[in-house]
Design brief:
It is built from 13 helices and 24 strands. With 490 residues, the protein is of the alpha/beta class. β20 and β21 form a beta hairpin. The chain binds flavin-adenine dinucleotide. The site of flavin-adenine dinucleotide has 38 residues, from α1, α6 and α13. It comes from Streptomyces cyaneogriseus subsp. noncyanogenus. This is FAD-dependent urate hydroxylase HpyO/Asp monooxygenase CreE-like FAD/NAD(P)-binding domain-containing protein.
Length: 490
């Protein structure tokens, strides 16, 4: 049973289809398979912030997404940032092909268009509970539910359901339909907030203001690609002790050394965490245009390395270190494409867009919109508030007999083991339930990334089809031979 229907679910199918040992694969998802939150958008303006090279349903080998695009006549390079709707089309088409491959090997594939609300242990496997009250059974459960619940900041939570509060920037068509003279406040300054700004400003809207507690935009890059040269020494990473007082110094030294040893481009600057957002964007846009962003060349391997080593740390060390580096990771690991930075800079220069240097103290509902109270006493009125503060996974909590998916966040969640299996409290053996993608975020630090989900899918499929326990990131971030998915795609 695959619960979820986004890219992670299709990647899991890619690793299972064709195996004669799989009797049946059932997808449980309310949406068409392949079209999740980020890649289900139809707006051609919205780009991936990861290059084609790492935006593939199969993590190893040459990018399957690159092959998909090239086979359809797109002039594409592995470093390009493709429009996100093309990733959705890619997932959708591969899903159809993979279903055919699975069926040819004797596997039945079905899709139940419903949301799952829980999983319960039964005598010979699991019962998956559906929102409509029905139950389906399976021996092995894969949680591929993604992070699709918008995080609603405290300032507007009481206004859930208000027509002047747009709780998520997707589908982007909702933003495009706002009146041309609407003044819009967007809560957030990271990826979905930037999407919101690009869509709102592209339709000539007069005032869009982005605001967040950090007040910073992501850094700017020209590619996120794997590299055939190793940037890091595995032994040094294994020896890095998150509880040691010298941790930060040693980590900084390893990162600086990796950037220096690796750089093909003209140079790099010290990382920056803040400052005036508009000036920083202009500066980083220039650096990227002049090919002075050497740091970007180690990011793909850094993500793989973090996902390999951090899960082995104690939960307390993981939480402490990741909290300390959150700002740095969100600016650089989730950097934006130069094209988006140029568009933002143009909208900022033309006065259509502003990045607020503060976060509202209060946001009040007024007669025809909102009154925003800024620190220092100033107030400003807006017609709409768009929430773009990010997404989280629907809460998964343990019940006496299994898991509840969604609903109120009550009770502890299951433990995610290094091999991605879940363990319920008070039970010694892990369940035959696996987390793929965002659901594994309790253990793996970077999961909102298709490459990470594809690595998870390979590991889980390996355990299902051969019984071999494994952990993700067995392979380096380097491109290798062609992925198996391509062979069946004809
Ligand atoms: C704005 C934005 C931009 C992004 N850009 C990139 C990028 O450029 N590159 C990249 O690698 N990653 C990007 N990501 C992260 C990206 O979402 C993941 O890499 C990947 O798409 C996640 O796929 P998924 O299948 O895990 O989740 P999703 O695509 O969110 O799909 C989740 C699926 O699960 C279903 N579902 C949820 N709950 C249930 C339930 N209870 N029962 C049944 N079904 C359920 C949903 O209906 C949906 O079908 C971005 C994310 C965001 C928000």
């Amino acid at each position: 049973m695959i619960i979820g229907g986004g890219a992670s679910a299709v990647s899991t199918l890619a690793h299972l289809a064709g195996d004669p040992g799989v009797e049946r694969i059932t997808f449980v998802a309310p949406t068409p398979i392949g079209l999740g939150t980020a890649f289900g958008t139809t707006d051609p303006l919205l780009l991936c912030n990861t290059s084609v090279d790492v935006t593939s349903l199969v993590a190893d080998g040459r990018s399957d997404f690159l092959d998909y695009l090239a086979a359809r006549g797109h002039p594409v390079h592995r470093a390009d940032f493709a429009p996100r709707y093309l990733v959705g089309q890619y997932c959708r088409e591969r899903y159809t092909e993979l279903c055919a491959r699975a069926r040819a090997a004797g596997t039945k594939v079905t899709h139940i268009r419903e949301r799952s609300v829980g999983v319960e242990r039964s005598r010979d496997g699991y019962r998956v509970l559906l929102a409509g009250g029905a139950v389906v059974t399976g021996t092995d459960i894969l949680l591929c539910v993604g992070a699709d619940v918008p995080k609603l900041p405290d300032e507007v939570r009481a206004h859930r359901g208000d027509p002047r509060l747009i709780e998520s920037p997707y589908p982007a068509g909702r933003l495009r339909r706002l009146p041309a003279d609407a003044r819009v406040l967007t809560l957030g300054t990271k990826l979905s907030a930037i999407d919101s700004a690009l869509v709102l400003c592209s339709t000539g809207r007069r005032t869009t203001v982005l605001t967040s507690p950090s007040g910073t935009l992501p850094a700017v890059r020209t590619a996120l690609c794997r590299d055939d040269r190793a940037a890091f020494d595995r032994a040094a990473w294994s020896a890095l002790d998150p509880d040691d007082a010298s941790f930060d110094r040693r980590l900084a030294r390893m990162l600086v050394r990796a950037v220096r040893a690796h750089r093909r481009s003209a140079g790099s600057e010290r990382p920056r965490l803040g400052g005036d957002a508009t000036r920083l964007l202009d500066h980083e846009r220039r650096l990227a245009a002049e090919d002075r962003t050497a740091w970007q060349e180690i990011v793909a391997e850094l993500i793989d390395t973090l996902n390999t080593h951090v899960p082995r740390w104690s939960p307390a060390a993981r939480a402490r270190v990741l909290a300390r580096y959150r700002g740095l990771m969100s600016r650089y690991i989730s950097a934006i494409p130069l094209r988006n930075a140029r568009l933002l800079a143009r909208h900022l220069a033309q006065g259509r867009l502003r990045v607020a240097d503060a976060y509202p103290e209060r946001i009040e509902r007024a007669a025809d919109g909102w009154t925003v109270h800024w620190p220092g006493g100033a107030t400003e009125t807006f017609d709409y508030v768009v929430n773009a503060a990010g997404y989280r996974v629907a809460p998964v909590s343990c019940t006496g007999t299994g898991l509840r998916i969604g609903g109120p966040d009550t009770g502890p969640g299951p433990e995610v083991l290094a091999d991605l299996r879940l363990r319920l409290p008070h039970r010694r053996s892990p369940e035959r339930i696996w987390a793929v993608g965002a659901s594994a975020g309790g253990r793996y630090p970077i999961v909102n990334y298709l490459r990470a989900a594809a690595q998870h899918a390979a590991v889980v499929a390996g355990q299902l089809t051969s019984g071999t326990p494994a952990t993700p990131q067995r392979s380096a971030a380097r491109p290798g031979p062609r992925p198996t998915i391509h062979r069946s795609a004809a």
